[in-house]
Amino acid sequence: MTPQTFRYLFEGISADGVRYLIERNDMTLSEAIATFHNSETFAALEDFETGLYIESPAYVRI
Which end of the chain has fewer surrounding CB within 10 Å, N or C? Predict the structure, then answer.
């Protein structure tokens, strides 16, 4: 997998995670980004070895 493909998948799941936080927890965009960025899910997504980045956004929850 190329770095560009990994980045594309990572960014897509990240955007969905932030949107999920906004919709389900009534957060502002800033709050949702901070919450997601500081989550264990974000750390796992960043780790190429976990393979979490290839899962569907519905599977990846904060």
Answer: N
Exposure of 39 by Cβ count < 10 A (0-12 exposed, 13-18 middle, 19+ buried)?
middle
Contact 17, 36 (CB under 8 A): yes
Give the pLDDT of residue 19: 94
* DSSP symbols for 39-58: SHHHHHHH-GGG-GGGS-TT
Element spanning 62, H or E: none
Taking alpha carbons only, the member of 8, 24, 31, 29 closest to residue 61 is 24
d(CA 15, CA 51): 17
Among 1, 34, 2, 7, smallest CA distance to 18 is for 34
Per run of 10 residues, the mean pLDDT along the chain (length 62 residues) is: 87 92 95 95 89 83 69
